[in-house]
């Protein structure tokens, strides 16, 4: 009997089950299990999860759906997202683990807008989206509801939503580049996308222009539900991210999407952006996917 009491006391001291992370991702779960999958965001998330100590489950959902679930499901997170002023009001954010080049304005290679935008670039090789959309006959621009393009662009796009030439897609987003078929088939003239997130064969079909309203680089994070259970998970995610960031493979993996000549500049941007995130003003002026 005494032994039974000790056994029961031992059980009471143990957690009934580990807190399980529910990871809501655009990418199907099988892609994370495939070590040969070379898609950069998948590789980076997979590497973080190798350092994550607790059970987790991955569910494939659209980005819009992921944020809906985060608002009502403790223990849920979604990877590879940008910070924005609005999102910071609702969700918890991990440490950064990806740096991305600025979002670009994409048009179909060889289209009339491709040549026209070449002539409209300023001395720094950039286009002002605000000025472009104020033209008497602006391009038809496709955007996606629920995505963050960066605070400056988000504010501008909010104002432009009433403009007839801006098309806002509200359907479920399954992957970066979902609007490109519309662009390829000439249903729209332009869209906004991270070029580095696209397969090499897709990049050749489009011409990308840098925007004056977009920062040179931005960071990507895990966003999680804002509750006590998710806060515990966030601590473990941050520990996993920091372990990855301190690993020998991190720098090479972080910089691998960029041309060799650009990597020193990107690494300095990574250090600078992370330093800014640690400052008190970072909450008021977030930099990020």
What is the strand tally?
Answer: 12
By secondary-structure content and strand pairing, the structural class works out as alpha/beta
Can you give the helix content as a percent range? 25-40%
Q: Which second-level CATH architecture of the largest domain applies?
A: 3-Layer(aba) Sandwich
CATH class of the largest domain reads Alpha Beta
The CATH homologous superfamily of the largest domain corresponds to Periplasmic binding protein-like II
Explain this structure to me?
Helices cover 40% and strands 19% of the residues. With 289 residues, the protein is of the alpha/beta class. The chain has two domains: 17-100 and 218-282, Periplasmic binding protein-like II (D-Maltodextrin-Binding Protein, domain 2, 3-Layer(aba) Sandwich), CATH 3.40.190; 103-211, 3-Layer(aba) Sandwich (D-Maltodextrin-Binding Protein, domain 2). Helix 8 (151-160) links the parallel strand 8 and strand 9 (166-169). Helix 3 (40-51) packs across helix 11 (228-245). Residues 1-17 and 281-289 have low confidence and may be disordered. This is TIGR02285 family protein.
Key traits:
single chain; 289 residues; alpha/beta; D-Maltodextrin-Binding Protein, domain 2; 6-stranded mixed beta sheet; 12 strands; globular; disordered C terminus; TIGR02285 family protein; signal
Summarize the structure.
The protein is α/β, with parallel strands linked by helices and 289 residues long. The chain is 40% helix and 19% strand. It starts with a helix and ends in a 12-residue tail after the last helix.
